[in-house]
Amino acid sequence: MMRIVVIGQAAFGAKTLEALLEKEENIVAVYAPPDGPKGRVDPLKETAQAKAIQVFQPKSFKDSSTFDAYQAVKPDLTILAFVTDIIPARFFETASKGAICYHPSILPRHRGASAINWAVIMGDQKTGLTIFRPDGGIDTGPILLQKEIDIGPNDTTGSLYFNHLFPMGIAAIMESVALIKEGKAPEITQDESKATYEPPCDDRVAGIDWKKSAQEIYNLVRGCDPQPGAYTLWKGDKIRFYSAGLSKDQADASPGTVLGIDQEGIHLAVPGGKLVVGKVRSSSTGKISGMEFAEQQGLKAGDQLTS
């Protein structure tokens, strides 16, 4: 029976471990992040401990002591289930059947930490997932299998991940393990001419430019929902948008102008249409409805939001 090591974190890592155990796979160790502030424990660690599986929580994978402990476990296969650390290639070379890694894009497009965000922001019609053989690079290495899904006009990063790419990813990892056990796992070289690499989707890219087209602004809002939240400025504060909609109704007002506020949310002029923002978050509020935000903060029709 294959000796499997799982490296991962969060709900995806935990659900991957549960699915492997349901298939009665032999999990010999789990690598989870160090405990967070106030002793907060990662869900993958919790799941492993509940099943009496050995847990390692290295601060870095670059230390020789971390590698020595990994070698001592004698893994046949290492599974990377939502990994944000850079893991040296020697970890993958040690396991007799190598390693596999889940990535939520159709590689080689959208390498990097924010693949789903960028697929939405850049207006892609499709996305999906890749299970590949990591080789120490950032989302490089031969492809074992891929699955595609359509990106709907109102999809957000959150809806694509939680409704599709999360459950599909668990199933794809199980399918990949079965192919490896049968000796039928393909290894398809990535086409470097089609590779794209985007930076992390954070506040350096999440600011709304009101001069851009209605669709570009809407794509940014959807791509940054739920994190980090596309933002605009009002009274010097970052106002973040969620649960947005777009209509092609032309507004006779400069982009970023509040056109009205109702149960649907805050209606804003954008070039070539109207953006309706259902939920808002600022530095002084949690995520609340657009109407509630307007009432609390005194936002009204005619007010101008700025880039």
List the helices and strands and how they pair.
Elements: E1 3-8, H1 10-22, E2 26-31, H2 43-50, E3 55-56, H3 64-73, E4 77-81, H4 90-94, E5 99-103, H5 115-121, E6 126-132, E7 143-150, H6 157-181, H7 214-223, E8 230-234, E9 237-247, E10 258-262, E11 265-270, E12 273-282, E13 285-289, H8 290-297
Parallel strand pairs: 1-2, 1-4, 2-3, 4-5
Antiparallel strand pairs: 5-6, 6-7, 8-9, 9-12, 10-11, 11-12, 12-13
Explain this structure:
This protein has helices spanning 10-22, 43-50, 64-73, 90-94, 115-121, 157-181, 214-223, 290-297, and strands at 3-8, 26-31, 55-56, 77-81, 99-103, 126-132, 143-150, 230-234, 237-247, 258-262, 265-270, 273-282, 285-289. It is 28% helix and 26% strand. It is elongated. The protein is α/β, with parallel strands linked by helices and 307 residues long. It is built from 8 helices and 13 strands. Helix 1 (10-22) links the parallel strand 1 and strand 2 (26-31). The strands form 2 sheets. It has a 7-stranded mixed beta sheet with strand order 3-2-1-4-5-6-7. Strands 8, 9, 10, 11, 12 and 13 form a 6-stranded antiparallel beta sheet that branches. It has 2 domains: 3-194, 3-Layer(aba) Sandwich (Rossmann fold), CATH 3.40.50.170; 214-297, Methionyl-tRNA Fmet Formyltransferase, Chain A, domain 2 (Roll), CATH 3.10.25.
